[in-house]
Write a structure and sequence with these properties.
Blueprint: H1 4-9, H2 14-24, H3 34-41, H4 47-54, E1 65-69, H5 75-84, E2 87-92, H6 95-107, E3 114-118, E4 131-137, H7 146-156, E5 157-170, H8 196-206, E6 209-215, H9 217-231, H10 241-244, H11 248-260, E7 264-272
Helix pairs in contact: 3-5, 7-8
Bound molecules: S-adenosylmethionine.
Length: 275
């Protein structure tokens, strides 16, 4: 399953680094909470605040089994399990994310609710009509074949299930090339950022009915304001820089630059598999 995308994300020492950061923050695996870990586990624009704002659209509850497509270390999956009581399966290509995520799930005593799998989102191991809901946060920027991706998600959802996509999509300037590296790609070879209209076309071709599509400038603006406010302060040990690696600063700066130039915008699309 190794390839240029998982190589971009892979951090073989991620768990050791998380353990060191916990110690520096005065926490241990016994005392840590999902909130403590949120700054390193919500690898998308807006971080935990975006998750809190977007998840209500899925109408999750404790009877449901949900799928987190491209779950990373599983921060959103664990948030959903804790907040809504649902069971969640997460799939992700990157081995060190899944391994770290499994350990963190056991620290938070969520192993009966959250199961993480090292699998491609394009070929998941689940039977048809397994899940009551699904989400995908900041993943398809790495996947060129969005039509096959959405067909796979459609296959594993039950009729009536909702699917929430929250990705970085092209902004009002859809032509100018992006500046790299960005958090999801070191260069253009693994970056497939597309306008919301292309997503909608592929989702509809897979069979989904679109309920709402919305660029989330509000989430992005607050995210960059908070980033700026942190810039002059002492560095927190619990930071996404752990996950983004050596070029974290450059990736974050280019994310902001591309956003401010109107080349990208985080966009949420809520859709549903018809009954
Ligand atoms: C920017 S991270 C987002 C992680 C998580 N969704 C979050 O919001 O915290 C993108 C993730 O997508 C995963 N990914 C990219 N392409 C994938 C694919 N074809 N199948 C499964 N996971 C994929 C990467 O391994 C990475 O963990």
């Amino acid at each position: 399953m190794r390839g240029p995308v998982s190589d971009h994300y892979n951090r073989p020492d991620l768990l050791a680094q998380v353990e060191r950061a916990l110690g520096a923050a005065g926490k241990s695996p016994e005392t840590v909470t999902s909130e403590d870990l949120a700054p390193i586990e919500e690898f998308h624009m807006g971080a935990r605040a975006a998750t809190i704002a977007l998840m209500p659209g899925l109408k999750l509850d404790e009877t449901m089994r949900a799928l987190d497509v491209g779950c990373g270390t599983g921060g959103v999956a664990r948030y959903a399990a804790e907040r809504y009581g649902c069971k969640v399966d997460g799939v992700d290509l990157t081995g060190s994310f899944i391994e770290a995520g499994k350990t963190i799930t056991s620290w938070l005593k969520l192993t009966s609710k959250v199961t993480l799998h090292r699998e491609s989102a394009l070929h998941t191991p689940f039977k048809d009509e397994t899940f009551d809901a699904a989400w995908m946060f900041h993943v398809a920027m790495n996947i060129e074949d969005k039509r096959s991706l959405f067909a796979e998600v459609f296959r594993v959802l039950k009729p009536g299930a909702r699917f929430l996509v929250y990705d970085v999509m092209r902004g009002e300037d859809a032509e100018t090339p992006l500046t790299f590296p960005v958090p999801w790609a070191s260069d253009a070879s693994t970056s497939f950022v597309r306008p919301a209209e292309r997503y909608e076309e592929h989702l509809e071709a897979a069979g989904f009915a679109i309920e709402k599509a919305q660029p989330r400038h509000d989430i992005a603006d607050r995210f960059f304001e908070a980033m700026e406010a942190r810039a002059g302060q002492p560095k927190s040990p619990m930071s996404l820089a752990l996950v983004m690696g050596e070029t974290a600063k450059e990736k974050a700066a280019n994310l902001k630059k591309n956003y401010q130039a109107g080349l990208i915008v985080p966009t949420a699309i809520l859709c549903r598999k018809p009954e």
